[in-house]
Amino acid sequence: MTVLLDALGTLVRFEPPAPRLRMLLAERHGVEVDEDQARAGMRAEIAYYRREHHRAGDRAGLAALRRDCAAVLAGALPEPAREIPVDALAATLVDAIRFDAYPEAPAVLDELRARGHALAVVSNWDVSLHDVLVATGLAPRVDAVVTSAELGVAKPDPRPFAVALEALGVRAGGALHVGDTVAEDVAGAFAAGVRPVLVARDGAPEDPVPDGVAVVADLRGVLDAAR
């Protein structure tokens, strides 16, 4: 069996960036902001990034996007932060954002591979996902990675799934996709002819789950679904 997996909310989680942003602004730039100001700045930056991450399909696009995100962050912070050079603030922003793998993710991926399953990550992310997977130790555990920004199309479009299956040399029949959203992961998997498995880490998902879709509390539930 082939197992496709989403990244954020499925394999990796996003550490709250505001506390680290505050620390780095003070240490590197001598700029003091309070917790509420840091959170407001990051909310503005994250909202902009989500709208624009499709631009970062290569390293040049990623660098340009990070500069623009830093400018948005500066505009949402108190006046002293706006005096920080944009390249320096971009570096601080990148260092403030950290991801880590969910605790069960490495062992589950290892078990799936030990059973002979081919694994691919299919995510609405920019080219930096490759770096995140390396940093979290997950990169060696998967066989292919497909990001929406590199491909130029995002889930729920079926094309990211098709590209992942082609990279693995398999067909949709018998494959499953594991993700944490109904609108992107479940709908996209159905469109691609792949069986969806929904990860609902915080309990009941916000969106209605179509009949017949397996819902698991974390990745350990995938071990049963992939039998």
UniProtKB/TrEMBL annotation:
Enzyme class, spelled out: hydrolase
Protein EC: 3.1.3.18
InterPro entries: HAD-like_sf (IPR036412), HAD-SF_hydro_IA (IPR006439), HAD-SF_hydro_IA_REG-2-like_cap (IPR044924), HAD_sf (IPR023214)
Domain of life: Bacteria
Keywords annotated in UniProt: Hydrolase
Coiled-coil ranges from the UniProt annotation: none
Listed NCBIfam families: HAD-SF-IA-v1
Protein name: Phosphoglycolate phosphatase
Organism: Capillimicrobium parvum
